[in-house]
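Late entry, written up from scratch paper. The run itself happened at the end of the previous shift, but nothing got recorded in the book at the time, so transcribing now.
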Amino acid sequence: MAASNPMGIDKEQAFGMAEIEMEHKVELFNRLTQTCFKKCFEKRYKDSELNMGEISCIDRCVFKYWQVNNLIGQLLAGGGRPSM
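Output as recorded:
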């Protein structure tokens, strides 16, 4: 049995950890959406579709947000200075 569960985590603990991780991912996604929406879109909508400037802005914003999130994760995990 130890081979199938090397960390000694039972099902309840595994589900609890997965639930917490999912909550964090949803919170991260919501913050990313709010941040990039505020940065890339005007308050009033002119068109029903995104223009090239908005598409480019949202692409850069999401990329930078994930990059910074990963950098912070590496620093908090004790990995020292992450490489860029």
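The chain has one domain: 11-76.
(Scratch paper discarded after transcription.)
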